[in-house]
Structures are given as C-alpha cells and as structure tokens.
Design goal:
Largest sheet: 7 strands, mixed
Mean pLDDT: 94
Shape: globular
Strand content: 15-25%
Strand order of the largest sheet: 18-19-17-16-22-23-24
Helix content: 25-40%
Structural class: alpha+beta
C-alpha cells in the first residue's frame, strides 16, 4: 500500500509519499506565510493552500508513476481552527481568519458569562483561538460577508472539498470550534444559539480515520492522481502528532514544539473538567479523547529572537545554540514570559505580552536566548501540573517539533519537569500519525499499537534524563513570582 500524507501547517504544507512500511519515498514541502496585519489581525489567502496542494500532489503523483507505484489512499491532517467563508459555489469570499488572530477578544468577553455551559459541552472556555468565536465575529462585524457565505469552513474542510467535492469535517476539528458537544459528537443546538450561528453553515461531522471523500475528476486532471482514490480525514495536526508519538493509551503524553507548543495526553473516556485550565478534545483515535494545553508562541518566539539578535548569523540555529550552551541553567536569573501571542492555557489571557525580567549589565544575548527557551519550558510545566489533576503522571514525555533543533531544549525540559524526555529520530510525527490513520482505516494494520510499531520500526530513540533540578526549581519559583507580579488578577 502506498499512501500520500498531506500535512497542512501554519508556515508550510508538506506532502509525503509513504510505502506500506511507513518508509518515506518522496517529500515535497512548500512554504507560505500568513499576513500579520497588525498585533491583532492575522489572515491568509486560500490560494496559498490550493496552489501548494496542487504542486505537492502533482509532484508525488509523478514520483509514484516513475517508480511504477499505485497510490492507494491519501490522508489529510491540518491546522485546526482558521476560518474561511465560502460562497454557494465553494469559492472563498475573503482571506481566512487565522487561528492566532485575536480580533474576537471583545466578543469572547461578551460571551464569558456562558463559560460554564461551553466548558461542560465543548471542553474549553470561550477563547479567540477556536473557530466558533471567529465565525460569530464575522456574523457580528461583517454582516454582508456573513449573508453571502453558504459555509463557514476550517481549512481542512475546504481542502477536502477542493480534492473530492465533498463537504465534511471530522470530530477533531469540531472539538476546536466550541460548537460541538463532546459527549454526542454532534453540533450542539444550545451552543449554536449562544454564538448565533445556523447549523446549515457548518459541514457535516464524521469520525476521524474514515474516508472523507474520493479524488474528483477535476482534481485528478489537475494533479495526475487517479480519480476515485479515497481520502482519509486523519484529524487535526496536533492530534495526529500525538498519535505519531505513541499517545494511544490513557495517560500517554507528548509535547510538540511548533509555531506554538502543544501538550497532549490520551484519555479513554470523556473527563469531567470543572474549570478551564485544560482543554478537552476529540482524539484522532475514533471514540477517544485528549487533554490538551497550549503555549501560543514557541518556535515563533525563538525565531523572532534569532532574527532580531542574530541577524548576520547562519540561517540555522548554530550560533544561538552555542551561546545558550555557554549560559548556565536558569539563565543567570533572567526570566522570560513568552507571551508573544498572548497566553493560552491555563489562563487564556489574550492581552498578555512577552517580558524579559532580571536583566543586568552583565547579561548576554545567550542568557536572554536561554531565558526564552526556559520560559517556554516553564509554561509547559505549569500546564503539566494542571493535567496532573486529571491523569496519572507520565513516566516519560515524548518530545518533537521544530524547537528540538535546539540541543538545549530536551535537557532543559527534562530538568524543569523532573521527567525523562524521549525523542524519536524521525521528526515527522504528524505525518506518521496520518499514515497510521490510513493504515488502520484500510486494514493494513489491525490496531493502533501495530500501526505505531510499524511507523517507528526503524527509528532511533534517545532519552534525556533530568539534571540540574535544583537550579531549575529556583528558576521556576522565580518564574511564578514574576508572573504573579505582572498578572496578579488571572
């Protein structure tokens, strides 16, 4: 069996052709970037995704043809809560409002009184990241656009239609909307009334890991893919990343350090969450759930610092890595609150901004770089402590994502959490999760454990043990004091 996985990220789209053993035969990656209009608004044109999708699928179809391989199935995973208004003909009516856009803050404030019912049914408090908030903002602030829209879609919905002509969305995306009841896995009438959104503007819900549609004639002619080839909706990118990292059983945990950082733990049953400190969502494994925490700026924060303070260095991170390694754990007393895009869980403070505290005339840029790295790790620790109220503490944390290119990340995280950190040599955890979804859906493997073992069969595994615990304990205490001083009312 040969599988094309499409992984739609925030800064690029990747397409990978895998064989039946999850061996990578060909990869094509195309970069793009959202428009950061100001400190609040972030948008992106739908043509960025469709043009990248056509180029990727055409290239992979040609690669398969040259090797005399038949592409048996495609599997799609994507960023989850950016919103795109579509016309009756499924044409984009405006740029997409991206997941990191914060224009909905006023609307979220107005709906905050409804948090108890939203948390109970949808698994998260009202917040600017989720798609339902953005849809309601369009209704309130762009009524003409709302009137002309036939559907309010998230990016994977649109791409499924573009490839197959079918309009569906799976439970993982529904669980990032504040509009889906996690218990019934259906759009909830009470939630729809709260957001004043008609059910007709949403796509039908399906289970992740099932066929969303089949490659249409028009998309076949654009790309060379065989018409009728099934397309699996593998689930949201973070859920697929967790799957590709082995989050299969209750309490398994992983951290992805991408544009933002995401902590995901597996949960067999729908947990009863009394507050808003963690997010409950649908797992990429049908019928299961995940607990999730989010740090909104991770690689984006590190990239900003690199570009601002190392403008003449190599395009990689060698220079900044060397200076971080020359800075002591706890960064010589410097504390960074990494809220470059506001704060995610547990406090959801959209107005929070990044801070560097404790600077002196002896501080170096390497100290500041280490402080930002450790600030991200401290935020992860805050969120892991919240998760521990619902799940058993994991014996090891699996780590992946772009920030793992910084060799100081794993030892810093292990020391701060006091937990061993495991890493797999193949960094494509999201794509491998989507491959696993296709492997189980097609019957190539009978279950998720077998699919995971096949996906990671040739991987080297490294484990970093906790060190420098005392230094990091002092740093974490100072981090908490700094946060309480700047944000005393959260």
């Amino acid at each position: 069996m040969n599988v094309i996985v499409i992984d739609v990220g925030t800064s690029s789209m990747r397409g990978i052709l895998y064989d039946a053993h999850a061996a990578e035969l060909k990869k094509i990656q195309i970069s793009y970037s959202p428009f950061y209009i100001d400190q609040i608004c972030v948008e992106q044109n739908a043509s960025d995704w469709t043009s990248a999708l056509i180029r990727i699928c055409s290239g992979l179809a040609q690669a398969a043809k040259e090797e005399n391989r038949k592409i048996d199935v495609l599997s799609l995973t994507s960023q989850r809560s950016s919103v795109l208004p579509l016309s009756k003909d499924m044409e984009p009516l405006s740029p997409a409002i991206m997941w990191q856009d914060k224009r909905t803050m006023s609307l979220c404030h107005d709906l905050k009184k409804s948090d108890p019912v939203i948390i109970q049914k949808a698994g998260s408090r009202i917040n600017p990241v989720y798609s339902g908030s953005k849809m309601a903002w369009i209704r309130r602030n762009q009524p003409e656009l709302f009137e002309h829209a036939a559907k309010l879609a998230v990016i994977p919905d649109y791409l499924v239609w573009f490839m197959t002509g079918t309009l569906v969305t799976d439970h993982t995306y529904g669980s990032r909307s504040l509009l889906m009841n996690l218990g019934t896995r259906e759009w909830d009438e009470e939630l729809l009334r709260l957001f004043e959104l008609p059910r007709s503007m949403l796509c039908d819900l399906i289970s992740p890991g099932t066929v969303a549609g089949h490659i249409s004639g028009p998309f076949s002619r654009l790309t060379g893919l065989l018409e009728g080839t099934p397309l699996i909706s593998a689930g949201g990118d973070q859920q697929c990343s967790a799957l590709g990292q082995g989050v299969i059983h209750h309490g398994d945990a992983q951290i992805t350090t991408g544009t933002g950082a995401y902590i995901i733990s597996g949960c067999d049953e729908l947990p009863v969450v009394k507050g808003s400190e963690v997010i409950v969502g649908a797992s990429a494994i049908p019928g299961k759930y995940v607990l999730e925490s989010s740090i909104l700026a991770c690689c984006s924060a590190f990239n900003w610092f690199h570009n601002a303070f190392y403008p003449d260095s190599d395009r990689g991170f060698d220079s900044i890595n060397r200076e971080i390694l020359n800075s002591p754990p706890a960064a010589g007393g410097i504390i960074a609150l990494p809220y470059f895009q506001g704060q995610g869980t547990p406090d959801w403070n959209s107005m929070a901004t990044a801070s560097l505290l404790g600077l002196t005339l002896s501080s170096s840029r390497g100290d500041m770089a280490r402080a930002i790295l450790e600030g991200i790790c401290y935020e992860i620790k805050v969120n892991m402590e919240c998760m521990a109220r619902y799940l058993p503490a994991p014996s090891s944390i699996v780590l992946s994502g772009g920030l793992t290119k910084c060799p100081s990340l794993a030892p810093s995280l292990a020391g701060i959490l006091g937990t061993p950190v495991t890493q797999y040599s193949n960094p494509e955890s999201t794509a491998l999760g989507a491959w696993m979804s296709a492997a189980v859906a097609t019957g190539l493997h009978p279950g998720w454990e077998e699919a995971f073992q096949a996906a990671r069969d040739s991987d080297a595994v490294t484990q970093t043990l906790p060190e420098n615990r005392d230094n990091y304990k002092k740093g974490y205490s100072l981090y908490q004091e700094s946060y309480s001083r700047l944000y005393p009312y959260t």
